[in-house]
Amino acid sequence: MKNKKAAMEMSVGTIVTIVLLMSVLVLGIFLIQGIFKSAKGAVDLTDQQLQAEIGKLFESDAGVVIYPTSKYLKIKVGEIDQVGIGIKNIAGNTNVPTTFSYVVKQTDNDCGLSEEQVTNWISLGRTDEGIPIPISGFETTRATFKIPESTPTCLADFRVEVYRGGEIYDSEYFTVEVKA
Question: What are the tens digits of pLDDT across the range 17-38?
Answer without folding.
Answer: 888 889 998 888 888 777 665 5
